Amino acid sequence: MGLACDRDPRDRDPAITKLQIELMTRITADQAIRDTVFSKGIALDPMTISRMEQVDRDNTSWLKDQIRQHGWPSAAKVGKTASDAALLIVQHAVHDRPFQRMALDTVTKLFEKGEVEGRAFALLYDRVKTQGGEKQRYGTQAKMNDRQITFDPMEDSANVDSLRKTVGLPPLAVYRRTLDSVYLGKTQPEPVERPSKGKKK
Q1: Residue 136: helix, strand or coil by DSSP?
Q2: Could you tell me which of 141, 142, 105, 146 has the C-alpha nearest to residue 123?
Q3: pLDDT tens string 25-68
Q4: Is the same domain home to 89 and 129?
Q5: Are the C-beta atoms of 121 and 107 separated by less than 8 Å?
Q6: Any bridge partners for residue 17, and if so which?
Q7: Are 167 and 122 in contact (CB under 8 A)?
Q8: Structural domain count of the chain
Q9: Quick one: 123 and 199 in the same domain?
Q10: 34 with 52: CB under 8 angstroms?
């Protein structure tokens, strides 16, 4: 979906149009560097990871400034495509926990109004919790150690599939098979979420 599909051109504010274009440009760079990182599998290149982290820092700094000037880039304001790009920048701002916590408050309210997809909310919720040393709720955060996928501690592991269903995520077993396929070369289905701690997309 292009930006032209998100908003009627007659309704565009030049500043918002510029914000849309910049969001899409920045998220293209975000994904390009991650494609380079993840194409290397588990043999990650420290220099490439450093470049990825710099992209994340630059994008975070820029987005914080835009939020101060224009408020949160909601789908109603900038269109769903650009708004999703902003959410992804927030997901990758692991170096700025206060910003992620602030963003989670806003994203939670938008999710409750049906303006943010459940998957995006769940990813940010779990990421903020695990980054703060707390347990995750939806089982979206995992690490890879010695070629083994290990999920971060959960609030309610017995009912995690029910919790995942409420935000539109498939059962945890499906996610685990996806991670095995993506990172360990084991045959299985489509990608869902990415592991945390340096291997996230």
Answers
A1: strand
A2: 141
A3: 999 999 998 888 776 555 567 888 899 999 999 999 999 999 99
A4: no
A5: yes
A6: none
A7: yes
A8: 2
A9: yes
A10: yes
